[in-house]
Write a structure and sequence with these properties.
single chain, 192 residues, mainly alpha, 3-stranded parallel sheet, globular, binds S-adenosylmethionine
Length: 192
């Protein structure tokens, strides 16, 4: 539970889903083409970043490639933790989360240490060069799966077009069908 003082001090009011959507929908279509990067320099729990990921997935981008184009920073460590988990939770609905996904969020979604960067994001080095240590990736993998950490974070309710099932209708080629669905299809066939 965040204190009122903390919320006031850091302006920690996150943008509501409808407003995020209205803003993203106003962007020119070309921003949704492959490899275009998005960065929220004060990302909070990732309201903008999760919607960017959802929209990229709905437009047929591959989950790992989409994740690798999304960047964020924040001075509050728990916000960064939540943002990383929410991004990975979305990924987990499309394909199993691997070390590559975890590496992407570790590199691209970062905590700004205010002792090192007293002016926060105004001074932060946005080159995102931090390479996570293997032991941190393993620790995270355990943290997520053994402690069921995805249960601790909330995602917005999304229309079917943002889900692998909805996407199947929109992008029905084998190549664009998420791996997870291919797996489920085989299982369905087996049941028949
Ligand atoms: C109004 S919230 C917005 C969060 C997110 N962008 C959104 O739209 O939901 C502001 C965020 O900025 C962070 N913040 C405050 N000062 C900052 C600074 N100097 N550099 C980076 N982040 C900062 C806070 O921790 C908080 O998460």
């Amino acid at each position: 539970m965040k204190s009122k003082e903390r919320i006031k001090k850091n302006a920690e009011i996150f943008t509501p889903n409808t407003l995020v959507n209205d803003m993203l929908n106003k962007l020119p279509q070309e921003v949704w083409s492959d490899n275009k990067t998005f960065c929220d320099p004060a990302c909070g729990n990732g309201q903008f970043l999760i919607w960017v990921l959802l929209k990229k997935l709905a437009k047929g981008h591959k989950p790992l490639a989409a994740l690798q184009t999304i960047y964020g920073a924040d001075i509050m460590r728990d916000n960064i933790q939540e943002c990383r988990l929410r991004l990975l939770k979305i990924i987990s609905t499309w394909e199993p989360v691997t070390e590559e996904h975890i590496k992407a969020v570790f590199q691209n979604v970062v905590w700004i240490n205010m002792k090192k960067y007293p002016q926060g994001s105004l001074q932060y080095d946005f080159s995102f060069k931090n390479t996570p240590r293997t032991k941190d990736l393993v620790r995270w993998m355990n943290y997520i799966y053994k402690e069921n950490k995805f249960d601790d974070v909330e995602l917005p309710f999304v229309e079917e077009q943002f889900t692998p099932a909805g996407c199947l209708d929109l992008f029905a080629t084998e190549e664009e069908t998420p791996a997870l669905l291919n797996k489920n299809r085989v299982q369905e066939k087996d049941v028949d």
